[in-house]
Amino acid sequence: MVSAYLYVEGGGDSKDQQARCREGFRRLLEKAGFSGRMPRIVAGGGRSATYKQFKAALRDPGKIALLLVDSEEPVTQAPWAHLQARDGWERPAAAVDDQAQFMVTCMETWVMADHTALRAFFGTCLNEESLLPLADLEQRPRNEVQAALAQATRPCGRDRQYQKGKRSFQVLASLSPTTLDRYLPYFRRLMETLNIYLA
Q1: What dihedral angle (degrees, nearest 10) is formed by the CA atoms of 24, 96, 145, 43?
Q2: What does the pLDDT look like over 79-132, one tens digit per residue?
Q3: Burial of 128 per CB tally in 10 Å (0-12, 13-18, 19+)
Q4: Pick from 156, 168, 66: which is nearest to 109 by CA?
């Protein structure tokens, strides 16, 4: 039997953080309608480590492997061409375009896309004036998105403000797939691809 595996950038080197990463993505995918047919989510840690694990999985005939990493920059070409140009990653011979998936330009773009979830998660301390407009979010540099998110949640204090790793996967789990689908074409592409592989 062939099983689907989603190799996700994130979780660092800590088992605790990797568990939080898997949980955040699991809850988001379940809300997106994949309950009962979920892929195995692998928190790959760093970007290069995730790519290496994905490549190794392609050699296993019992696995269908998909790679999900930050694009780091807006995507202007085919997925593997983007990864070749930016990271020097060659497309493995056994991989097709659909197996390279992106959070464009970073996971925080997904977080920024759901203002309603941010209000619910951070409450009255959220500085909504610092949130970015929803149009063309995937065209914004990751540094701009991350800085705006930090600014918007800074009034919540050091223990409650958005932090990569510490709070990010809790926020991820609270997002609405419907909202992300509406504003983020590359999130929509991921959902469409998973629906094909997990049919």
Answers
A1: 30
A2: 999 999 999 999 999 999 999 999 999 999 999 999 999 999 999 999 999 999
A3: exposed
A4: 168
